Amino acid sequence: MGGLRPPILLVGTQDPRFDLGAAVREAGVRGKVALITAGWQERESEDSELVEDLGGPVVNLRLHERADDVFARDRDLSDAYKKRQRQLRLLNDFYRIRLDHAFEAARAISVRHVDEDLLDEERHVSVEELRHLDRDHLERCVVRQVAFDARWKPAQRPIVAEHRREIAKILASSRAVVLAGGHVASLLNRMKLFGVVDLAAGLPWIAAAGGAMVLTERIFLFHDFPPHGTGIAEVFDVGFGLVKDVVVLPDPRRRIRLDDRQGIARFVQRIAPATCVAMDSGARLWVERGRVVRAFAHRLFQDGTVEPGWTG
Amino acid sequence: MSITRAIDALASGPKDPAAVDAFLAAHTFPLVEGPAITFVFRGEAEAVNLKHWVYGLPSSQPLARLEGTDLWHLTFELPRGSRVEYKLEVVRGGAGQWFQDPLNQSLARDPFGANSVAHSEGYEVPEWIHPDPEARPGTMEDEHWVDSPTFGRRSVAVYLPARFRRTRRYPLLVVHDGHDYLRYASLGTILDNLIQRLEIPDMIVVLTSSPNRLIEYADDERHARWLTEELVPHLERALPIDARPQTRCLMGASFGAVAALSTAWRYPGFYGRLLLQSGSFAFTDIGDRNHRGPLFDPVVAFMNRLRAQPIPMAERVFVSCGMYESLIYENRSFVPALQSTGMDVRYVEARDGHNWENWRDRLREGLSWLFPGPLLLVYE
């Protein structure tokens, strides 16, 4: 994708209330918007509250429903896709096992009563190991996805192509794309299947929570308060890369132990040199030419500190 | 600084019926004061005993009569976060009779009736065991009949998640003594809630119950065959189940945990997940007779074999046990053997006993660890 990129506005969590409508107005968008709620999976069409919040004319691209149609009618693609997804899930399982052990090793070393300088060095090594695991996992996932695309060429399959034409038509008469959050894997995969980012070239994006995550280069999954034990953030996949050098963490109030300085430091060092931004309800990142130019969000730093109300 | 306990304050004042009335009216019982817990009973009796199931304490402890009154009391320290089930034995005319504490409305039910429940400080009944108006209830098919060569015609119950769709594929959880889990451990409500909160995925849960569990669950080859070669294939034909080890789990408590474990051991790799609660994992270090009696003989033989040569039968194993049950020794000592195989093992202890509410309280952690829901993937 060359040339000037249209502006992007990333928005924080939409729970407990939508503010995507306000964001669309802040972005100066007038007229019809194309809406993506594929992250809501089977509830994709239950969008009346969001449509009301958006105010103006809205057309939901129905990517989840379209993908269901593709998988029902193109059995070969469907079987191959499921096989790939099973493989990716296994890769993720194995990555998790390695990650857990790397964390255990880091913890075991960190509690030794030795020279602080040596511990610092070891902390650095521990972070490097995590970075290596993340990098390796992403690369292996991407290799499989690229191989899948090369083998199956989804965009050229007749049923996918049929939907792509319909999506392109809607986008041609839209003034922006509004991307709701939800299940990031569902959202990402369906957007990839139909090549929505390419089809929407030239349009501004207003994306919330999980939607904001998929527009960045790397998607990290995180939850410091899981129902079992402690949470370890994991890299999930590459995103569409419309927003560069930023890792977005929505809903920090409920998902991040903001007083865990060591944990925050470890994570921010792990994703460096990317900027780590946590986005609560009402947060904003204004992006031009792929770079954050203005912000209202929490920024997390490599020393474990948090700057609320970071302005970019 | 010493704290005067309420019972001591009562003992040091006038001991008349009005004072006892006031004492009872002013507190809830058992009375928890810091680490101390005081059990009381009011009534004429020759003796009153606290009967409880806390391994490590005498199972019968006498309450003392407060001189000049008909009030009986017993105070001891209960570690923080403890939960204890008990009854009171009142001896009259030389005969003891057990019953629930009349001053305590908190009861735990099980197949044998109900016990009174005492908590120390730090224990909270989990909020996720109560029906959540936000959670859409799944559906329960109470009688799903299965014909099989091994056990003939048997009925299981089948839980389907609220948003069940035939076009999707679901993990399968098979629960030993599943009907008891439903009745005494709130399993249905817990599944609804954890699914609603995205802590576990939508799943199909099959509840089995055996008419002869002490035989069939004690490493009985027929039970393992029935489950693995008959029930599961039948379910996979009848329901949209994701037929992979990673999405297939056996669960059970007590003898049910033995059944789950021995079935997985007989079919290594078939069940990718095991949830074992307070397993009756009796064994011997020498000889073949365990003190628990002949019903345990096949369990002992099985556990001795397994402990001597542990194998990686599943991928993930969640083991839980109460510190106040006698099986804590067997469970604690079994975990390193499981871990030595390379299986991913999580072991959790609770200050609780061999009872359904202990097993209930561990379900969130166990199920969400074995089957992480989409919580990590969903950002609204």
Main sheet: strands, sense, barrel of chain A: 10 strands, mixed
Major sheet attributes of chain B: 9 strands, antiparallel
> Would you count the extended β strands of chain A for me?
13
Number of helices of chain B: 11
Count the domains of chain A.
2
Q: Compute the number of strand runs of chain B.
A: 18
CATH topology of the largest domain in chain A: Rossmann fold
| Name of the CATH first level of the largest domain in chain A | Alpha Beta
Which class of secondary structure composition applies to the elements of chain B?
Answer: alpha/beta
Q: Explain this structure to me?
A:
Chain A contains eleven helices and 13 strands. In chain A, strands 1, 2, 3, 4, 6, 9, 10, 11, 12 and 13 form a ten-stranded mixed sheet that branches. In chain A, strands 7-8 form a two-stranded antiparallel ribbon. The mean pLDDT of chain A is 95. Helices cover 47% and strands 19% of the residues of chain A. Chain A has helices at 20-26, 48-54, 63-73, 75-110, 116-152, 158-172, 184-193, 196-199, 210-214, 252-255, 261-271; strands spanning 8-11, 33-36, 58-60, 176-179, 182-183, 205-208, 218-221, 234-238, 246-250, 275-279, 284-288, 291-300, 306-310. By secondary structure, chain B is α/β, with parallel strands linked by helices. In chain B, 28% of the residues lie in helices and 29% in strands. In chain B, the strands form two sheets. In chain B, strands 1, 2, 3, 4, 5, 6, 7, 8 and 9 form a nine-stranded antiparallel sheet that branches. An eight-stranded mixed sheet of chain B has the order 10-11-13-12-14-15-16-17, sandwiched between helices. In chain B, strand 15 (273-277), helix 8 and strand 16 (316-322) form a beta-alpha-beta unit. In chain B, helix 6 (221-238) crosses helix 7. The A-B interface holds A 13-15, 39, 42, 68, 72, 86, 89-90, 93, 97, 181-185, 209-210, 213, 221-223, 226-229, 231, 234, 236, 250-251 and B 163, 165, 167, 194, 197, 199, 244, 246, 344, 346, 364-366, 368-369, 372, 374-380. Strand 5 of chain A pairs antiparallel with strand 18 (378-379) of chain B.
